[in-house]
Write a structure and sequence with these properties.
Layout: H1 8-33, H2 42-61, H3 68-84, H4 89-94
């Protein structure tokens, strides 16, 4: 009875932390360098912002599960996603830094 397996939560939360960090950093790169081509509806806007906020909150709650450098990169990326929305009207609706009609 003393040979109990390690709890799976220890490994799953570290993987989930890294996955969320990668999501935030890659999403910031996507929205910085690729232009948007159409405006989403209001529901899409709210869903995007809620997803970004939820991922950022989850990274903050799981900060002890991964390396501090990865944590800070994800926090900066998450805040950058919201900073992009403050640059213009098109950026507010699309979440991308650039907008073009192609």
């Amino acid at each position: 009875m003393t040979d109990q397996p390690a709890p799976a939560d220890k490994y799953n939360s570290a993987f989930f932390f890294k996955l969320l960090c990668a999501y935030l950093v890659l999403l910031l790169g996507w929205r910085l360098f690729l232009p948007a081509h159409e405006y989403p509806g209001r529901a899409g806007l709210i869903f995007d912002m809620a997803t970004d906020a939820g991922a950022l909150l989850a990274v903050i709650l799981l900060r002890a599960k991964g390396p501090p450098a990865l944590f800070w990169a994800a926090v900066i990326a998450g805040l950058g996603l919201f900073a992009i929305r403050m640059t213009s009207e098109a950026s507010w609706w699309t979440g991308h830094l650039m907008y073009s009609l192609n």
